[in-house]
Amino acid sequence: MNGAAISAVPAATPAALPSPGSLGAWILAARPKTLTAAASPVLVGAAVAWNEGTYSLAPALAALVGAFCIQIGTNFANDLFDYKKGADTGERLGPIRTAQAGLLSVRELGAGTATAFGLAALSGLYLIACGGWPILAVGILSILAGLAYTGGPFPLGYHGLGEVFVFIFFGPVAVAGTVFVQSGKLSPLALFWSIPVGFLCAAILVVNNWRDVQTDERAGKRTIAVRFGKKFTKALYISLVVLPFLLSISAAFYFHRGTLFLPLLAFPFAWKLAGIFAGSELGPALNDLLAQTAQILFFYSLLLAIGIAL
């Protein structure tokens, strides 16, 4: 469902680190707070299906499980590949990476990645039965994108394509795919509502890449932040955070549905985050901003889902 890792966990202190190989180490590597980014597109997709009279609980739940597994597998893979490529060092400002900190070995993370993607494939078997070969293609592409974000011969995140692929896989693929497994058809409404969800998901990665811009540049990781610099990155974040609310307003007037104004309840918080990011400097404080951006994504998506379903 997604093609990039989105870190939303505040940096741990050395005293708070779990024991190597422990359950706590695996939880740290999975980055549970990022799972809101996996859940949000499915939530909106389920609401669209409800609105169109095609909602079905079992496929929606299977899509949610698959999204969680792919997100976790992608997080494991990024922890592994960034460590092997030298992008994660002791100078990292972001959350603790388990390979770099010696909490999980390369072999353990490789096995964890395979397991998470394997579980995603199992849930995918049911979804393929519901949606046919298009879902098989989507599943394969989602897993490959998760691996290719930092791994393979052309790692997407190292060539400035991370935000693009996050938008695609957290937006149209996730939202429209959730509707497709319930209805068997491509929904124009799902494609429309996938845009604001994809924007907010991409905004999380923008913060992540701005926070890591110095260590990424030294490691040869040519993210958008590295390529285009401070002004462009900050303008991009503000645009990605504000545009979803403008789309909600436009849709409310176009469809003559007052419930579509509901996401505006989250706008004051989003606007505050835009102001904080505009004036921010590099430092661990960006971890809090990143986590708050992930929260805005979820609250926007929840309010949007309610507005669509009512």
Structure description:
The chain is mainly alpha-helical and 310 residues long. The protein has twelve helices and no strands. The protein has helices at 23-30, 35-51, 57-85, 106-131, 133-148, 162-170, 172-183, 188-211, 213-218, 224-254, 267-278, 286-309. The chain starts with 22 loop residues before the first helix and ends with a helix.
Question: What fraction of the residues are assigned to beta strands by DSSP?
Answer: under 5%
Radius of gyration: 19 Å
Q: Taking all residues together, what is the mean pLDDT? A: 88
Residue windows where pLDDT falls under 50 for at least 5 positions: 1-5, 7-15
Q: What's the main sheet like? A: none
> Span from first to last CA?
26 Å
Q: What's the overall geometry?
A: globular
Fraction of residues in H or I helices: 55-70%
Name the structural class: mainly alpha
Task: Provide the succession of SSEs.
Answer: HHHHHHHHHHHH
Number of helices: 12
Please give the number of β-strands. 0
Provide keyphrases for this structure.
310 residues
List the helices and strands and how they pair.
Elements: H1 23-30, H2 35-51, H3 57-85, H4 106-131, H5 133-148, H6 162-170, H7 172-183, H8 188-211, H9 213-218, H10 224-254, H11 267-278, H12 286-309
